């Protein structure tokens, strides 16, 4: 895990910081686990633009990731650690004892040749997926389900992790990556270890063109718009825009929009710190 600063031989490379990709072991993905990925350019089925600032970018293929880890008790060997253009984390190619292959999100410290297994009887080692009821307290975990059998949806991006704090009745208390403390059912699965590629936060694009390669188009600042387009638009000369707010007029910067009667309130033990 390392990053490199490039020599400033062009203006775009002057501030660029790139990933060393030390953990990556191959540049050829497993063909059977690839799926086509259509570029919509932010348009819907009628051709109308519904998402602004997306489009273009390098052509990508989707890697089918096993978020459910349903092959309980079947050991799998890590064949390679690979780059995935669809996410910030690296992915690992698993080869199961019964011949099946699958991609999973790679944890920090996962290496080629290592054996991982999922299910109730798996040991609490990095890369193993267990129900929260079987994980020792205080363990760093990632790729957590919110509902049993749903598949991992929490702590999946590069460098993120949660922590198992306590167990009470049929719920586990989890400290989320955001700092929020929440109750999750003990039957939900989680993977041991933090997600790989923690250096992702240190990367600097260096030039606008890299955003374009990633399919991100330039975003118009609200203060540069007209009053018809945004509450912060208009004004004579260069106006500051007043109080920051969204396009719909809701204040940004700390305005609470969460419903007071949200059904999930009873599962949230402590909100994240500001």
Q: What does this molecule look like?
A:
With 274 residues, the chain is an all-beta fold. It folds into two domains: 3-41 and 53-201, SH3 type barrels, CATH 2.30.30; 227-267, no CATH class. It is built from one helix and 15 strands; from the N terminus they run ββββββββββββββαβ. The chain has one helix spanning 208-213, and strands spanning 3-5, 17-19, 34-36, 61-63, 76-82, 91-96, 101-105, 115-116, 129-131, 140-142, 162-168, 171-175, 181-185, 189-192, 268-270. The strands form four sheets. The protein has a seven-stranded antiparallel sheet, with no helix packed on it. Strands 7-6-5-8 form a four-stranded antiparallel sheet, with no helix packed on it. A hairpin with a 2-residue loop joins strand 11 (162-168) and strand 12. The longest helix is centred in the C-terminal third of the chain and has 6 residues, at 208-213. The mean pLDDT is 95.
Question: Terminal Cα separation, in Å?
Answer: 30 Å
Instruction: Identify low-pLDDT runs.
Output: none
| Total helical elements | 1
Name of the top-level CATH class of the largest domain: Mainly Beta
Per DSSP E runs of 2 or more residues, the count of β-strands stands at 15
Q: Note the overall shape.
A: globular
Largest sheet: number of strands, sense, barrel closure: 7 strands, antiparallel
